[in-house]
Every structure is written in structure tokens, then in C-alpha cells.
Amino acid sequence: MKTTLETIGIIHSPFKEKFGIPRQPGLVPEAVATLELLPPYDRPEAVAGLDGYSHVWIQFLFHRTMREQWQPTVRPPRLGGNRRVGVFASRSPFRPNPLGLSVMELRGVHCDRGVELELGGVDLLDGTPVVDIKPYVPYVDSIPDARGGFAPAAPERRLPVRFTPQAERQLRQRADGERVRELIRGLLEIDPRPAYRGEEEGERVFGMRLHDFDLRWRVMQGRVEVLELAAGY
Amino acid sequence: MKTTLETIGIIHSPFKEKFGIPRQPGLVPEAVATLELLPPYDRPEAVAGLDGYSHVWIQFLFHRTMREQWQPTVRPPRLGGNRRVGVFASRSPFRPNPLGLSVMELRGVHCDRGVELELGGVDLLDGTPVVDIKPYVPYVDSIPDARGGFAPAAPERRLPVRFTPQAERQLRQRADGERVRELIRGLLEIDPRPAYRGEEEGERVFGMRLHDFDLRWRVMQGRVEVLELAAGY
User: pTM for the whole thing?
Assistant: First the structure.
């Protein structure tokens, strides 16, 4: 049996590429995005009552990782990228059907122009197509005692993050500098580098596209140093 | 943007019609079903490691309620069927995309002939097409403090359930009689009648198709009386 899904909305997020996105929702509360409903779904009645919920499920498409061929196993970054598990035992984007599922904080419902949801703790690429929104119903969805396989707990290591004078200067020049600083801190303190390089440090400069800039940083002696917010890409 | 999903598996459950199915997963742990993976997805590698998890997300299609036209609002049974909320503020099966989402207990992974998952707390119709399986990751998915809108808690009222001598006799004639008795008790003590009839009682006999029989019961003075397991439909 085959079914066709239609995109009902689109994500506008600061994440312009896959590297650096938190690997699960909720890890970085400062990661805020909006979900814009598309016509004909952009009707205020369709979200009536949603503001009574603190969290929502977003069902989306992994639009950048769709593949012709599915593979029965994947290598989760959480396991260092060198152990394989079944695709159905993972939340990997490389799946038979490219369906994603993330719970997010619902920070606001705006119906002044079309319909927009303001979401927190986002782990989605800019431009992600959304196929459904459902309320998070805690008495059904929350199972605190569930057994968690190979990912039993949130990553605990939080690295201290400092900004170079150059990065500080670039942040001060932005109207949204304070918010961007907190986002950068949230993203880098959980160390977006692949787990198998967790202990490797040194001169290597990492970069990720964020908002309208290219964020550059390195990790030295267990600390993150934010080098610059390079312009233009 | 449109995407085509393929069915990866099929649910075999005791529920042969919509009436009487628990309105959320987990409410009736005795409701057990199997999920059979379909070719080419029925490969043991695809579920390797899944048995480390106690619960799974099942993403499925509401195959019996697909409609040509979507409606921006729905009337949830939980609100007595007479108040409307936005379709995206509900878990109603009548949605723009017919995607369902249920968390279930993973009771077993069987790979002897094809691949079958044994699921508990099921709220799915027999024959439901499944489009994805994901592990339940408690540190991400479990948010006990989430605010729950119009469905803040599980239904608390549990009705006492008694079986007439005829129903007892019919249960004793079945090899699976004990299991079926516990399933019936679990299903009826949470009162599957629509909320707007909650206080109405009397002579009316209700029926639901379950396994290979037609279950008949009534509610008298706050007690459920199981009348018979009528044969053949």
C-alpha cells in the first residue's frame, strides 16, 4: 500500500546545514524556529485549542537525506559511528520512509498573518517540510520509566564556551546579538563534533552555517573557543 | 511538496472495528497485537538492537478513515463530542495527512519466520498499515511536566466488570479463554461508550467485534455485565 503525503507547513530555523544541529530536540532550548502553515492549511481554526499544550509533536520529512535505496542498518553518531544497529532501532534520517518525529516546546501560536507556531528546542533544518502537528499528551506520551537501549540518557558533558574579542565584537554589531550568543553557547557546550572525535582536540577549526553567518570555533583543553561569525556564504 | 510512503508492515490485532478500541495506546496493557514486517523490510538486521528498548513509536496510516476532504476542526470524544477543536490540536484520525502515532510496549522481537514485533497496550485496528518504527528514547520523548490541554489525565473511572454464566461458559470453551477474559475486562472497565452517554444506562446492549466473536455487554448501575461472546460475523 502506498500513500501520498502533502506538506502542510515549512520550518524556518537558524540551521542551514546538517552539521551542528542538536541530535535530538530539547537539548538546546535556545534553538528557536517558526513553523509556517501553508495554504490551504493556514487557517486559525485548524490550531484552535493548541495553545493549551506546552509541547507538540512535529512530524516532518527528512528532505535532504532522501535516498533511492534503503539500508537495513545505520551507524548512529551516539555510538561513535562505528557500530551498526537496525534502522528501526534508530532515529536516523536514513529510513525506508523519510519520516521524522520531534517533540518541541510550543512557545506561541500566532494567527495575525496566516498561522505560525513558535517552537523551542528545535533540531530541524531550515526549510524542513512538515506533514503533521499533534499535541503532546503527557499521560499517554510520557513514559519516564521506559528502557532506553543505547541512548539511555542525555549527553551530560557540557563544555565551557568562551568568545574571542573578534566574536564579541561581531555579536555586539547585531540587533539579535544577545539571542545569538545564547544560541551559540547552547549549541557548542554539548559539543556537536562526532562522538568518535570526542577526545581529539587541537588546532582544527570547525565551522557551521547558522542564521546568515558561518560560525567558526575550536576546542582547546576541554573548552570551546568561538573564533568568529564569518560573513557571507 | 508531496511524498509517497510505502507500507513497511501490517498490524494483526484483536480489534476488528473502530468502536471499543481504547482511545489512546497504553490504556489497556492486555491489548496485545503483532506487527509483521512486509518484504523487503522483513530482515532481522533492520530491527537489530531494538530489543534493548521497552517501548516503540509506531507510525501508521488511518486506513479506514481516509477522506477526500480535510476539515479544520474536529469533535474529540473526550470532550463529549459536542465541542470543536482544531485538527492540529487533536489526535483525531481525520487529518490532512492520515498519519497516526502511538507509543506501545515492546513485548518481544521474533525473527524466526520473517520479522514480527509483539506489542502491548495497542489501540490499532486489525490490518493497520505501518510506515515507520522508532525506538522510544525516554530522555527525549518523556516530558512528564508537559501541560496537557483538554486531556490532562487518563480516564480514572474504572467500572467493575462481571461475566454472566453464559459468557463464562463461552470463555471456558476457548483455549485462549483466560487471556480473552483479561482483555475484555481491560477494555470494558474504562467504558468505551462515547463520553456524552457516560451517565446513561439501562437495557441497551452494546456490541463490538473482537477476535473472532461479537462481544455483547450492557452497563447497569455503574457495573458492566458481559452478556455473551456471540459467534460468527
Answer: 0.91
